[in-house]
Recover the amino acids of this structure.
């Protein structure tokens, strides 16, 4: 039997061992990614393992997208946007930026610099206001530039029609998906700033994801051919909302994502060609969509993987209508307000990624979750 002097020491040792067990069971910090429903625009919030935040794009102008972004920030516990990255200057990507800055402090801004000279839809009034807002805390990024965010490695891979020429981890191999790839005729595009999109690859330990904004087909070829400088990723946010002018096999098949997230709207993005390229991509396990797409009908992902779905009567009409009536175009850019009425609630897709490369995807509409183990 322990002596009176030994007994307190044993108790202390047991308490320490118990505390060690508790700490060892505490889940590791995660990189949390929130894909906000901006009806075919973009707004994606990244919250790093230490709570530092990066918001990419701010959706359309108006209360609809602004309120959804603000609500997502509150849900994520973000009181200040540490880094605000604007991929390019179209209204479905920067529409709520100025209004958001009045509600939430923004520490630093990142963008690709001056808009494309041939773009005819960039707002001059927005540019003037944005320059004033970002004065002294704005960075014009170039390929290879880093965003310093605790616990993460964020590398610019495209900006202002310039592309990464150094190899990232896992990159540097010849890209077989470039064989037979042909450029598109982009000379008639009135929205040329899409091709200037600033995009990055983000790594949290072994987990990797990519966000290229609305980078178009030809820019994807310049980035990925003949050498894949990026390597593979776990999660790919579809370029340009899943429009046919982006999402080339040279990009998607080389990245070999395990999961793709499509930031489409009901009638914007979600083109049949985008679905085809994704489903043919080697190693793709699942496609998750922010919206059920009117443009592709039965080829949408299973409903459990779609965050926002129309009512049954609307779906029936779309599925039984002729292609001309049911598919109302992919759209080149979003009109003011994004071209879709507000619906409440608006659901999002969330990813929680661990540094070992595992991650969980959640559809907040139905709380459906899927766990993805680390790649071998």
């Amino acid at each position: 039997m322990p002596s009176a002097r030994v007994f307190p020491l044993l108790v202390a040792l047991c308490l320490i061992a118990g505390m060690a067990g508790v700490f060892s069971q505490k889940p590791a910090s995660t990189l949390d990614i929130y894909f906000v429903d901006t009806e075919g625009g973009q707004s994606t919030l990244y919250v790093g393992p230490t709570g530092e935040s990066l918001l990419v794009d701010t959706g359309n102008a108006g209360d609809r997208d602004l309120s959804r972004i603000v609500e997502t920030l509150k849900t994520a516990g973000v009181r200040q946007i540490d880094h605000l990255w604007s991929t390019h200057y179209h209204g479905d990507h920067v529409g709520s930026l100025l209004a958001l800055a009045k509600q939430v402090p923004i520490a630093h801004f990142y963008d690709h610099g001056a808009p494309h000279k041939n773009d005819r839809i960039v707002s001059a009034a927005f540019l003037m206001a944005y320059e004033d807002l970002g004065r002294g805390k704005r960075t014009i990024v170039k390929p290879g530039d880093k965003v310093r965010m605790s616990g993460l490695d964020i590398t610019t891979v495209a900006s202002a029609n310039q592309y990464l020429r150094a190899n990232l981890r896992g990159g540097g191999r010849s890209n077989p998906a470039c064989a037979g790839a042909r450029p598109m005729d982009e000379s008639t595009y009135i929205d040329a700033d899409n091709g200037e999109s600033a995009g990055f690859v983000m790594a949290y330990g072994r987990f990797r994801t990519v966000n290229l904004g609305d980078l178009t087909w030809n820019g994807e070829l310049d980035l990925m051919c003949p050498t894949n400088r990026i390597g593979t990723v776990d999660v790919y946010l579809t370029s340009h909302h899943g429009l046919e002018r982006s999402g080339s096999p040279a990009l998607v098949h080389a990245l070999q994502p395990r999961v793709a997230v499509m930031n489409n709207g009901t009638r914007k993005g979600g083109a049949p060609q985008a679905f085809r390229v994704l489903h043919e991509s080697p190693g793709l396990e699942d496609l998750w969509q922010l919206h059920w797409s009117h443009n592709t009908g039965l080829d949408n992902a299973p409903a459990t993987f779609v965050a926002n779905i129309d009512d049954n009567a609307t779906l029936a009409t779309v599925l039984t209508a002729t292609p001309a009536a049911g598919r109302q175009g992919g759209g080149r850019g979003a009109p003011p307000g994004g071209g879709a009425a507000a619906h409440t609630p608006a659901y999002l897709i969330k990813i929680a990624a661990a540094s070992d490369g595992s991650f969980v995807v959640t559809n907040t509409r139905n709380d459906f979750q899927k766990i993805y183990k680390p790649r071998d």
DSSP finds ten helices and 20 strands in the chain. Residues 6-27, 325-338 have pLDDT under 50 and may be disordered. The chain has one domain: 32-372. Residues 32-372 form a domain with the Metallo-beta-lactamase; Chain A fold (CATH 3.60.15.10).
